[in-house]
């Protein structure tokens, strides 16, 4: 039975790039601005440049492609399946939204691939995908403690900010526990490969999740006790070891992000139609 070592998950990568040197507040606002722009448009003239810029920024992180290749494949697979299910549930939604019908491929009954529906599905899929690169950029270049300091600096109570920091910091530990438990179960004869039926595989995965949950609860209890013993939460404010000063570069980027948000919202308010469709 194969027990190949598994490797997955994403976390902060300590490198010296201009993206790493940006303040955590700036990177968080960049992420929020990106999401705002994506959520306010169905215009491929904006979505495609966002994807290209996002992939460029991802390359600028200097993180090897092999580190996020599985996530890229997984995201593309999930979005493709989502597009198929959207078509199966509402095959005429593109026609209704764009106000025309151009039949490309008749399938069966009312299931007909039209140019409008195809364009709609491509737009929605690329819209969702455009958020993937910037999410990776944010995670790869922002230390959890720096991120918590950024949230606190933006006005979020430091207790909540610290909880976010702990969550991000211990995700790699949870991943490591999962792999260790999985290898231990495989050594005991639990088969997680494609050689067993799907239902059996799901049942075997449950044998991993149980110990993982209990070990995570034990770790959470230990951390909670340690924080109580150190008097965490007694003060009204706190300082942060990883907090960075906001530089002129950060201020310039934040100003640019503010302008982009205003332009995106203005464009959405002034638009007469939700979708940009060049074939009308």
TrEMBL record:
Transmembrane segment boundaries: 28-58, 70-90, 118-140, 252-270
KW Transmembrane helix (keyword) present: yes
Membrane-topology annotation of the record: Multi-pass membrane protein
Places the protein is found: Membrane
GO CC annotation terms, alphabetical: plasma membrane
The organism's place on the tree of life at top rank: Bacteria
Pfam family, one: CbiQ
The entry's keywords: Membrane, Transmembrane, Transmembrane helix
Signal peptide range in chain numbering: none
InterPro entries membership: ABC/ECF_trnsptr_transmembrane
Keyword Protein transport: no
Family according to the record: Belongs to the CbiQ family.
Protein name per its UniProtKB record: Membrane protein
Protein source organism: Aliivibrio sifiae
């Amino acid at each position: 039975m194969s027990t190949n070592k598994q490797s997955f998950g994403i976390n902060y990568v300590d490198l010296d790039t201009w993206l790493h040197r940006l303040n955590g507040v700036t990177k968080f606002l960049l992420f929020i601005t990106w999401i705002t722009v994506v959520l306010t448009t169905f215009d491929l003239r904006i979505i495609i440049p966002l994807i290209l810029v996002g992939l460029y920024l991802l390359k600028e992180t200097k993180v090897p492609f092999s580190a996020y290749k599985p996530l890229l494949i997984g995201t593309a697979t999930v979005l493709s399946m989502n597009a198929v299910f959207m078509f199966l549930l509402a095959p005429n939604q593109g026609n209704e939204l764009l106000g025309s019908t151009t039949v490309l491929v008749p399938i069966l009954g009312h299931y007909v691939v039209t140019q409008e529906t195809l364009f709609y599905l491509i737009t929605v899929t690329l819209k969702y995908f455009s958020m993937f690169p910037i999410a990776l950029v944010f995670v790869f270049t922002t230390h959890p403690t720096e991120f918590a300091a950024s949230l606190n600096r933006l006005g979020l109570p430091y207790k909540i900010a610290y909880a976010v920091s702990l969550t991000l910091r211990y995700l790699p530990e949870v991943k490591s526990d999962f792999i260790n438990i999985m290898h231990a179960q495989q050594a005991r004869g639990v088969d997680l490969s494609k050689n067993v039926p799907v239902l059996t595989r799901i049942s075997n995965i449950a044998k991993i999740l149980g110990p993982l949950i209990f070990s995570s609860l034990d770790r959470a209890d230990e951390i909670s006790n340690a924080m109580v013993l150190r008097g965490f939460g007694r003060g009204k404010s706190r300082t942060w070891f990883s907090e960075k000063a906001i530089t002129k570069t950060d201020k310039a980027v934040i100003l640019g992000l503010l302008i982009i948000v205003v332009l995106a919202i203005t464009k959405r308010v002034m638009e007469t139609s939700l979708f940009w469709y060049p074939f009308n």
